[in-house]
Amino acid sequence: MWWTALAPPRQVRRLAGVNLVNNLGDGLFAAVSVVFFIDIVGLTASQVARGLAVGGLTALLFGIRSQPLRAVRKTPFAGGVRPARGRTQH
């Protein structure tokens, strides 16, 4: 059929589905955490907003890689981690 020629490959559909589930979970967590902090913990809405803003900014700042990717790729070991000296790999 004509739509099979336009359909994306299976891996692309699977990745899109996983991305949808991940984003749905993140959104639900954000909404439920606000309700939890306001109703259960007893914080005000402005306190929750400030806390989530500080947490988001912290994640944004410290989530950036500390070294360029090409520096990691120069090493033959996974993740740029070298084994300890004197130990052999089996």
Portion in beta strands: under 5%
- What structural class is derived from the secondary structure elements? mainly alpha
Oligomer: single chain
Question: How would you describe the shape?
Answer: flat
Distance between the termini: 52 Å
Q: Any chance you could write out the topology, listing elements then pairs?
A:
Blueprint: H1 2-6, H2 10-41, H3 45-62, H4 69-73
How is this structure best described in words?
By secondary structure, this protein is mostly helical. It has one domain (10-79). Helix content is 67%, strand content 0%. The protein is built from four helices and no strands. The protein has helices at 2-6, 10-41, 45-62, 69-73. The termini are far apart.
Provide a concise account of the structure shown.
The protein is mostly helical.
Which terms summarize this structure?
90 residues, mainly alpha, 4 helices, flat
